[in-house]
TrEMBL record:
This is GDP-mannose 4,6-dehydratase. Keywords: Coiled coil, Lyase. InterPro entries: GDP_Man_deHydtase, NAD(P)-bd_dom, NAD(P)-bd_dom_sf. Residues 11-346 form the NAD(P)-binding domain. Its cofactor is NADP(+). Residues 339-366 form a coiled coil. It comes from the Eukaryota. Belongs to the NAD(P)-dependent epimerase/dehydratase family. GDP-mannose 4,6-dehydratase subfamily. HAMAP family: GDP_Man_dehydratase. Pfam families: GDP_Man_Dehyd. Its EC number is 4.2.1.47. It comes from Tetradesmus obliquus.
Amino acid sequence: MPNAEGRKVALITGVCGQDGSYLTELLLEKGYIVHGLKRRSSSFNHPRLEHILDKDYPNSKNFILHYADMVDSTSLTNLLKLTQPDEIYNLAAQSHVKVSFELPEYTAAASGMGALNLLEAVRGAGLADKTRIYQASTSEMFGKVHEVPQSETTPFHPRSPYGVAKVYAFWIFVNYRESYNMFCCNGILFNHESPRRGETFVTRKITMAAARIKLGLQDCVSLGNLDAKRDWGHAKDYVEAMWRILQQDKADDFVVATGITTTVRAFCEWSFNRAGLPLRWEGEGVNERGIVASGEHEGKVVVKVSERFFRPAEVELLLGDPAKAKAVLGWHPEQLTSVEKLCEEMVDADMELAKLEIMNVEMKKKLKVPY
Ligand code: NAP
Ligand code: G4F
């Protein structure tokens, strides 16, 4: 149901994250009024939205940020009563797998119970018949995979508190669809990255390191399991799939993936190569090293392995089967950004950021900024 101006209204939880920023751009472009849920933070926490908040950004006036929190049900109910959305995209989560082992209870509350809090808020606000709701489900639910590739029918076997919390969120969405006939959908998205990816996820950690090492800002990067395999796509392409999922006639669940898997090691090689630091490997296990193979920095150790980044239980291989998304949603990964192009885009963007960092450091010294 469109609002008074004839525009659809969307609410995005987790709007400050990687996907939230791309989805906001997409929905504004499509003419939506977009409400974004952000949580309180002691410092500025929406750098990914800064350009959209600029008054010159197209349809910037249709984007409104609100404070709420997935673990504060009252704030969710109040926000739903206020905004009356046609569509909700539940992207908010403690989304770091390794961190979820250190914060299991909070991860369960935000990434698991948060989904239930949202669904109950929709019902409490009297929107159960009107609002379509998307849940950011994840390939981490497949964990110790029972088959290759993974599809909508592959059993779940999560390997982290994050994965377990997301399995709860998945099933509570299915349950509310079956129990109350609500338009609840799960997008089971495989890993998707971009220049806006959080700095502690492996792709971004690597592309930042390659750029910063090349420009002399960093000596080396320490990584964990180099042999893990992930099905990596571009976040910008994946938010398009989220939107398509909510435009279907019938609520359903979809795997969103490229159907190609790559090792962390290969992503590392491509990134350092793109930065002009081609790699060779020496040693084994925690003694393995990535060494610059040729050029100005030949012989320099730029990648080390550290146990610190190993997980108590690892997801070794993720490879998705996007057949249903292709057939039903008309979402075709082979026509979208390849993992090689994604890697290049990320390294190039991090090169520019590293140059900016150098200028910033020099400027701060000049102006005597104390921190
Ligand atoms: P992200 O960058 O970590 O963004 C998550 C957002 O959730 C952040 O803006 C965070 O706020 C917010 N958040 C965390 N706890 C919250 C709380 N208690 N209340 C309100 N907001 C909260 O993640 P992403 O990569 O954009 O992913 C979006 C969603 O898709 C997540 O649910 C993730 O689990 C899921 N997912 C991601 C991938 C992937 O490969 N990217 C794949 C499958 C599923 P701050 O900005 O203040 O930290
Ligand atoms: O980049 P990662 O931290 O992503 P992970 O664990 O696959 O989770 C991401 O994708 C999920 C979808 O499958 C999302 F649901 C989740 O929210 C998140 O966005 O790690 C990827 C792989 C892992 O096997 C990890 O062990 O890279 C390996 N790895 C090796 N060294 C590392 C590192 N991961 C990180 N973060 N840091 C390392 O130094």
